[in-house]
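Problem statement: downstream parser choked on a complex file, so we are re-checking the raw output for the zinc ion run. The parser issue turned out to be on our end (a line-ending mismatch), but while we're here, posting the original submission so the record is complete.
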Amino acid sequence: MVDKGKIESAIETILQAIGEDSNREGLLATPERVARVYEEIFSGINIDPQAILQTTFNEEYSGLVTLERISFFSMCEHHLLPFYGFVSIGYIPNGKIAGLSKFVRLIDVLSKRPQLQERLTEQIVNLIDLVLSPEGVAVIISAEHMCMSLRGVNKVGATIKTVASRGSLSTQNDRFKEFETIVSKEK
Ligand code: ZN
């Protein structure tokens, strides 16, 4: 539960600190609006991500399962500016699978908190590894960071790519290449 009143007074302080008149018409309701936005974009903070993946199915499928380019929005914890892009997940089940909506929810909960792309990538891999105990799991995230894009036109559209993997989908393994080829194909 976020303290909206505290956010409102903090935003009012920031507006004054940058030299604005926080009482002018266009800014009057801004602290309240920002508080509502923050409540939404930081709503993942107190949710246990491990609980989300608990509904699993027993299935004797031993091929590669891929979930391609699931979009996400998060906030960089160094600058409190958005970074956003796509998460691709691949795993080779070891008797247990989970539905697509659970992975989407997992990404959502882990994104809606002050984050770093590197940590987000590791957290997704670790949770899937922990709950589904697959033979292998890999996650690729490509994202654009507003804290980079804002600092010069040359960096607009530049994306950062992060990779984390475990088991038979480790990056040095051939099966990782299979995963990478599938998710890097243009749709
Ligand atoms: Zn940043």
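For whoever reads this later: The chain has a mean pLDDT of 93.
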